[in-house]
Amino acid sequence: MRWIRNTKRNSGVRPIQLAILTAMTIYITSIGTLSGTYLSTGDSITCSLETQWRHLFQNKDEQRVRAIQDAFRCCGFRTPRDMPWPFPSASHGIDPTTCSHQFRRSASCLGPWMAEERKAAGILVTVAWGVFVWGVVVVTVAMRRQNDASRFEELDYEEQPRRGREIEGGRALEY
After folding, report:
1. pLDDT in the model for residue 36
2. What pLDDT, on the 0 to 100 scale, is given for residue 10?
3. Residues 6+ apart with CB under 8 A from 81
4. How far apart are CA 50 and CA 68, in angstroms?
5. Is the bond into 84 cis (omega within 30 degrees of 0)?
6. pLDDT confidence of residue 157
7. What angle do helix axes 62-72 and 110-150 make, rounded to 10 degrees?
8. CB-CB contact of 109 with 72 (8 Å)
């Protein structure tokens, strides 16, 4: 027969748990912060998107520029004449208005692309905060259960003090 005794000891947090929690918190904070920069209304997102677009345009990455223009039904970056696809070329008779005329589009890509980037950043920030809150709840519940369970110690029947039971074969507890 086994007995359970209240030991009132507190085991606390183990070092490996603390290291994992710290790493998880740093990671989630980094993701949330980096994603949050895309939610700003400042020039940071415009500059980032312009750098990406300029890189695609200078490398004549037709597939990606066209995919962006087709997805948002736009031409060019800031205006329909600003770095559009088909890429302007005097030797091939392609001027900056070719995209607008050929595809009948009058909007630039900056506005819709920025809105889509902000939406994606908002989702990432929401997920990061959700994971953080979930982690706090899980850790709190686990620590509470661990602390509650660690207050009790299991003992063999023979180790129990004789208090509360009869010495010679009677009942273990008096009512």
Report:
1. 75
2. 47
3. 75, 96, 97, 100
4. 13
5. no
6. 54
7. 90
8. yes
Cα 112 to Cα 104: distance, rounded to the nearest angstrom: 17
pTM here?
A: 0.63
Tens of pLDDT, residue by residue over 57-89, are 999 999 999 999 999 999 999 999 999 988 888
Locate tokens 């740093």: which residue?
26
Question: Per the structure block, which two tokens stand in for 158?
Answer: 């023979």
Q: How far apart are CA 13 and CA 9, in angstroms?
A: 13
- Residue among 44, 110, 46, 33 at smallest CA distance from 78: 110
Between 169 and 40, the higher pLDDT residue:
40
Q: Which residue, 113, 102, 44, is CA-closest to 78?
A: 113
Residue length of the chain: 175
- Band (pLDDT 50/70/90 cuts) for residue 120 is confident
Query: Is the Cβ–Cβ distance between 53 and 87 less than 8 Å?
Result: no
